[in-house]
Amino acid sequence: MSAVSKPPPTILALFLLIFCSFKLTFCIGNSSSNIIACPEAEKQALLSFKQSFKDPSNLLSSWNNNGEVNCCKWKGVFCNNLTGHVIELHLQTLSGIINPSLLNIKYLKHLDLSQNHFEQTIPSFIGSLTSLEYLNLSDAGFYGKIPHNIGNLSNLHTLVLEDNSESLEVDSLEWLSGLSKLEHLNMNYVNLSKAANWAQVINNLPSLIELHLSSCNLNDNNDNIANNITNSLAILDLSSNNFQSLSITRWIFQLSNLNFLNLRFNYFQGPIPSITNTTCKLQYIDLIGNFFNSTIPEWLYTCKSLEYVSLGLNHLQGKISNAIANLTSLRSLDLSTNELSGKIPTEIANLCQMQRLHLGWNKLAGEISDSFGNMSNCFLGALEYLDLSYNQLSGHLTHQFGEFENLKATDLSSNSLSGVIPNNIGNLSSLEALYLDSNKLTGNLPESMGQLSNLKRFFISDNTLEGVVTETHFARLSNLTTLSASRNNLTLKLINPNWIPSFKLTSLQLRSWNLGSGSGILSWIETQKNNINELDLSNTGISGNVPSWFWNILVLNISHNQLHGKIPSINGPKNGFSSSIQFVYLSSNKFSGPLPRVGNNVIELDLSNNSFSGDMSHFLCDTANQTYQLQILHLGGNHLSGELPEDCLMKWPSLLMLNLGNNNLSGTIPNSIGFLADLRSFNLYGNKFSGHIPFSMRNCTHLMKIDLADNNLDGNIPTWMGSLSNLLFLILRSNKLSGEITSTICQLNSLRILDLSDNKFSGTIPKCINNFTALTTTKDLFDFQYSFYLDSFIESASITTKGSEFTYDTILRLVTNIDLSNNNLSGDIPKEITSLVELRSLNLSGNYFTGLIPDSIGNMRQLESLDFSRNSLSGEIPSSFTIMSSLSYLNLSCNNLTGKIPESTQLLGFNESSFIGNHLCGPPLTSNCKNDGKSPGPTHELGDQDREDGNSEIEWFYVFLSSGYAVGLSAFFTIWFLKKSWREAYYELLDNMWDKIYVYFYIRWTRLNIALGRN
Name one Pfam family in it (predicted). Predict the structure, then answer.
């Protein structure tokens, strides 16, 4: 066969010329002067389409007949360069109704109506635009059900129906089955809870590559979960749904082309499923916020293409493997908020692509220099975010921590880091946030800190830093907005008293600094008054009057100083300031006068331990406001007097904590306390209240603390108190309460402190006391809800333990105590009390208890203080006392206990006074035990003189006793020798006795021989 000949060059040129004459645009490009005009029908369709819209941003201003007549040049309109047909519409910021004239644009392939405000259902006629390949209706204001006829758009490659307003829903997804060409599907935030067969439908989309079904109310509560899915899927987002079963994940981890997987914030439990692919193509995996409780799976370390890994907020345990060195492409690793332990492998600090490393909130330990003491140069150059907070890391920060080139934020807070802050920290020119708080750092604050020109947030609170801080430390910190440096031993000393800093702070916390009372200190802080919304100068030694602009700060803490004067009304914005004060802490100063009025915007108010006086009527009953938003009110430790107004508490419905303790208030507790339905903490201790505990308090069902100690209350413990299921602390000490402790109190199964001491209670301890389950089971003592918005306020309580009264605040949540001392209680100590194995202090002294100390007392191994003194207990001290290793205070004095004190190092360590007033013997008492282990009489302490007098009396006793025996025997034998009748009677008595003894033993000997068959 001959070769095909080529046409001559002239013919080729002629052909190209003719072609270009018809398709000029193809040859000369897309210059605006040569764009082919759109067809008139399509132009008119667009004009009709426009008429139904509101266009506040003038997007459609070019759509008219008066200007540009070619609709292909209108904004948001794109045409085919060869035919002029409209093929794309991009229309945003519109509102109104969508006109069906859109149907006249028959060649439309790309329709983007996202980010509009249509406020209508999705028009069903959209399902007739069969040429569409791309449809985006996301966040367009649509609501209601998605029309099924969208499934008629068989040419669709991309469908985006994402709805952040969560107003769209479906009753089924069967209509998706007609979209065989669909590659990209996004239905985030659409309610798919009724789409029971969603997985099967997705499985039948053969071309699907990208699937986004986040926050769709999906669950796995059906039996038709797909066992397999299209192998084309590469991007899968099922985050923030209601999945629980791992069965839904098994087919996911079998997808051979998957490179993006997001399953965050579901309810998956158990181990992370194994991946079965021979080659892992994953680049992105996000499983954050589930309940996976296994170790980090080994297959993860084999996916060398991984760039983003997020497994935070789970329950992962074990160690981070050295095999993490295999993940050389890794850019972001989030393993935070798990239970990982062990050392951080050094290999992490050699991953050259790493930009974000989050390992906070774990149990990682070891010297920080072992893990980050030899970081590679590429790691130092790439890392931007480092979070190692809330672990157990120790040791010193190495010089390398000042060599990061692009580090923007680092959080090393809440560890046990020690040593000094490296001097080269000022070299971190990109640093925006530095968290070093809650460690054990020492030494001075480096002056190089002042070179961090991009620094915005700086936290160094709760360390032991010391020395002087001057303006040099803030020289170039022009971007600083937050300085949190409380609880250090630092002193601010200004070289220039008129210094005006370059920064504009929104938050300044210098608690426990040495600021003195110099005017220069407060003058530079005043330069921040237009920006600052949080100021903590507590315990800084400042004195004098409070500047007026302080009362416009959102959060103000100036407690524990020497400030004085009267407090003006705290009513929010005034004097041109825009801030509205909401959190006020003025405790432990010298403020005086009447209580200030407060505005209804104030949320927390602490005026405790000052010298405020007068009654509370004007404070509680101010008619200027109907109700108040106040949640925490602490007025304890002042000189307030008078009675609480009966009806005014109704104005304070938001109160969570009310503390009026240690004042001079009197009268009865008002019944209006029952209107405080959200009250958590109620404190009236140290006043002169009388009468009964009001019945209306039963409405305060959220109460966690009741402290009415040291008043004159009478009556019984109300039976309704047993319904306060959240009650943690019940303190009724030192009142005139009486009656029996009924079994209803046993319903308080959350109780941690029960103090009924110094009252007139009678009867027995209810045996149901073992229903205090918070004291019977070992559990996390930090796991309860007693917390407040700011750490500026700390709840406190005073209890008697170890023979003294202690006030607990920061560790109150760790205290467990039962004190029933100094009442009229009687009967046995119930053995059920020994099941309270988490109890740390038990005091039953000063009652009328009888019977034995329960043998199982040794079960209470957490007990640190035990007082059974001044009762009528009997029997021996149980041997189980010897295993109570935590016991540091014991008082069993003044009972009727007997026998030997059990031998143990623990009991030997107590003073004799712990056992006196009993019938005990053995160490630590000086009285020795007889062979039977019992002491002859009550034990008591003897002085040296007593012991000498006692020994002397015993010696004379034996002298007189011996003389008496001698005289008596001499008289008997003299008369017996001289009187014959006595001698004859004596011998006759001996003969008779011998005859009887002989006959007795002879008879028994004879019977024994007969029984044994002897002759």
Answer: LRRNT_2
